[in-house]
Amino acid sequence: MAKYVLPGVCGAVFFGLFGAAALAQDDSYEAQQGLRMGSRVEQLEKEVAELKASKSSDGNSMFNWNWDNGLTAKTADGAFKVKIGGRLQYDFGTISQNDENKSAFGDILNGSEVRRARIAIDGTIYTDAFFKLELDFAGGSAKLKDAWLGYKNVPLIGNLRLGHQKEPMGLDQLTSDNYVAFIEIPMAVNAFTPDRNLGLMAYDTALNKRMRWQAGVFRDVDDNGTGQHDDGYALTARITGRPLISEDKSKYLHLGASASYRKPNNGMYSISTTPEWHMAPKFASTGTFATESVNLYGVEVAAVLGPFDVQGEYLGAHTDEGNMGGWYAQAGWWITGEHQNYDESMGVFGRVKPRNNFNPAKGTWGGWMINARYSTIDLNGDAVKGGKVNDVSLGLNWQLNPNMRIMFDGIHSMPQDKGSADIFLMRMQVDF
Question: Which of 31, 97, 144, 194 is geometrically suited to a Cys-Cys bond with 421, CB 3.0 to 4.6 A?
């Protein structure tokens, strides 16, 4: 028995020692491979970081994509930036007229429309050059909105912008329709401030961005950005400032003035406005009349005291047919505690971000604001009798999140000697 037991024990010991050595070698090999793999990963991570930080000979670098109230791509140094944005505004309106108003304007129907459906792209190229292109597809066909090139840090000037753009006149006109307090701008702003035209504009800020100025020369063009002229042109300028600003910028006073000298093409001009509903007919209109020149002017004031704000403008026109003008005053209250933000570069109101986005699961309901406005316009000149209209409006804005809101407006419109009409409007909006 012993002659079989001893060899068996020796064999077991031999195989045990051999197996342990083999396992030790395997563990050592795996450990070495793990170290090599970890070193390789660290090297790859270092190379990726160096690639992101590196720049090619033309100053470009890798783009980083993120969401900044729009899809944005930019380089680490900020020299190149592209943003893709847009907006959709769907409006619903109902109207109730008394008999006198129906006799003057006919039976106005209720309506709904895609008020704006825009796609925009803007950006920065080589640090100082910038651009914007925006098209509006509301109504079923593309209309040109912003289409300009710009350059900043120009010596003695500041910033230059050339192309299809808004002329610098009027607080509510220059504030984006994404951020205005009511669905439509006041009658006087609509009638007396020019919209987008082809031109060259210079602008800059001063006094630590407390003051800003804008000035340009423009030509009237159509929705395609084209026009033919004999002698028509315009010189338009605006200056604004905030003499009072709280440390957290939630309280401030805004003051401004603007003017435009216009040489109408063929010496013909017209001024008109709806009763602050885009689908309604013109409640005041001069028709086309002859004038050698037109001088538009306006003054503006706004005060923001945290969640409370007030603003107003007076605008007018001096023509060969006499003076015409109008004004509005409005007040608002952010019930949920937000305040009107301010765009320091252009002297207008900007995007409001609710303290809490709409999320019923978390018991948050977004931002809520109530507004009231009185506006009036008088288009009666010497021989031209365009009429006079007074409007009283109440509004409610529901800001679901920084990019979505629902608006409700009620308007009581009173055209002189033409009865009255009650209008109810609703807008659903998303913008980015």
Answer: 97
